[in-house]
Amino acid sequence: MKKRQSGSEEGSGGECPSRLIDARIEELGDWRGEMLARVRTLVQQVDPEVVEEWKWRGVPVWSHAGMICTGETYKNAVKITFAKGASLDDPSGLFNSSLEGNTRRAIDFHEGDEIDEKALKALLQAAVDLNTSSAG
């Protein structure tokens, strides 16, 4: 099994994906970096075997037996997109973006938003469970 620090896709200059994510968080230097760092920590708490990747010219991706979610940053939002979000139960109603699609679902966080950590961890665990149940 790949360790978290050795993601499957190298970034620019052969850098480790985890270091590239560290650099992105640092470079943002505002609430978006803090939000991305907090989500990253929650992903790692839910799944210590998560693999960090760096795809599509700079998008952090967390995977385990398939993509769990991505962490995109925009001027006014941090978007956490669940690759198979449409297949996940969301009893807390966290999904607030990409609701029309048949596969993905996303959560847009804006400045000042609080993370419902218990609900987000439940969604992350459900995504990992879905991936690992369909792998193999």
From TrEMBL:
Name of one Pfam family that matches: DUF1801
Matches recorded under InterPro entries: YdhG-like
Residue stretches making up the YdhG-like domain: 33-128
Cross-referenced SUPFAM superfamilies: YdhG-like (SSF159888)
Superkingdom of origin: Bacteria
Protein name according to UniProt: YdhG-like domain-containing protein
Organism: Rhodococcus jostii
